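Researcher: Sequence recovery benchmark, item below. Answer with residues only.
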């Protein structure tokens, strides 16, 4: 390593010091000198802990300035008239879709992951009480949504939910041509995340189900519900549809309020925390009937994954194609209702259909 390279952190330039050194003795054996020996120089405080302002991290927490040169970034790159490399061009073209993919991936990674951790282990006597409970599941789902917004919000808006995407297209001028591609990216992210969680818990799933070749959707040891939503056994279909619509209307109304500059919008960068509170409240108050999908992609992606993993076509056909009419139709209808209520009674922006100018007399 070049000790004069200014891009290297000072800590990495310090030679390693050992607490003991082996020196040859007259008897041919090594004798050990401790750090306290006068022959061993102690490192000074400034060498071990150099001034914080002089340390440049190897991987900066934020992108470096275009004219700043580091070990990983050359200043002349900003002046180059050559086009970006192929991957950079591809990423630029599909960056918003990538953001939706990875945002939805995070939602399912934490959501399905916590369901597996709690449900698969809570029945065992040695873990019971330590693997989590209903509240922990609600916290993890809410955290997954918040982290998804933090990851994708600055790139694509962070609405990793077809319900919100459709509502924004109808009430805020979000380009309709982008909706299909974004929804596909959301479903793909949920599918890959479900596969990742399944592989992480496949041993526990097999033990819980009663064998590696046993996979069930309903029943005392069914595990499909750890990944996608199911209506409660006692709940009529009309009740399930109403629950999804109510929860989705609440979510969409809150999303519209958080984005309303004329209202008490949260400071920039804190919207994800507000979404955490919203999801925690909705899940705690309205989640027991249907699992509060409110998001067709979050529900369909896991079904695709489990159909590939041996759960069979029943993941789509159970309860008269529940996946279609509750997490999609019910949720989107509820989202439109929530957006309509907010715009009709609270929103004053001119970009809403409710605030369009009156027709000329």
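Model:
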């Amino acid at each position: 390593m070049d000790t004069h390279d200014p891009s290297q952190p000072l800590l990495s330039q310090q030679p390693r010091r050992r607490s003991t050194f082996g020196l040859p003795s007259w008897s041919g054996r090594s004798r050990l000198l401790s750090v306290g020996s006068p022959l061993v120089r102690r490192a000074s405080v400034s060498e071990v802990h150099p001034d914080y302002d002089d340390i440049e991290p190897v991987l900066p927490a934020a992108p470096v300035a275009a004219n700043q040169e580091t070990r990983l970034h050359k200043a002349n790159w900003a002046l180059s008239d050559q086009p970006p490399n192929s991957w950079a061009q591809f990423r630029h073209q599909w960056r918003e879709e990538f953001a939706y993919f990875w945002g939805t991936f995070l939602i399912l990674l934490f959501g399905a992951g916590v369901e597996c951790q709690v449900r698969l282990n809570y029945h065992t006597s040695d873990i019971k009480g330590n693997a989590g409970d209903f509240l922990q599941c609600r916290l993890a789902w809410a955290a997954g949504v918040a982290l998804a917004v933090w990851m994708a919000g600055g790139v694509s808006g962070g609405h990793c939910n077809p319900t919100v995407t459709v509502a924004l297209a109808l009430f805020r001028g979000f380009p309709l041509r982008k909706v299909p591609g974004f929804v596909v990216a959301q479903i793909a992210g949920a599918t890959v995340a479900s596969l990742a969680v399944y592989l992480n818990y496949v041993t526990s799933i097999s033990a819980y189900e009663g064998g590696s070749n046993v996979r069930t959707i309903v029943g005392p040891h069914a595990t499909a519900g750890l990944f996608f939503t199911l209506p409660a056994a006692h709940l009529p279909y009309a009740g399930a549809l109403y629950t999804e619509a109510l929860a989705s209307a609440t979510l969409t109304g809150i999303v519209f309020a958080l984005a309303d500059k004329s209202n008490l919008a949260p400071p920039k960068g804190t919207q994800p925390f507000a979404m955490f509170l919203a999801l925690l409240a909705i899940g705690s108050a309205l989640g027991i009937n249907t699992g509060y999908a409110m998001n067709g992609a979050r529900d369909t992606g896991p079904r695709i994954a489990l159909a590939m993993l041996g759960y069979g076509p029943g993941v789509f056909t159970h309860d008269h194609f529940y996946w279609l009419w509750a997490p999609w139709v019910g949720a989107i209808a509820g989202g439109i209702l929530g957006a309509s209520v907010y715009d009709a009674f609270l929103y004053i922006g001119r970009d809403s259909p409710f605030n369009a100018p009156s027709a000329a007399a």
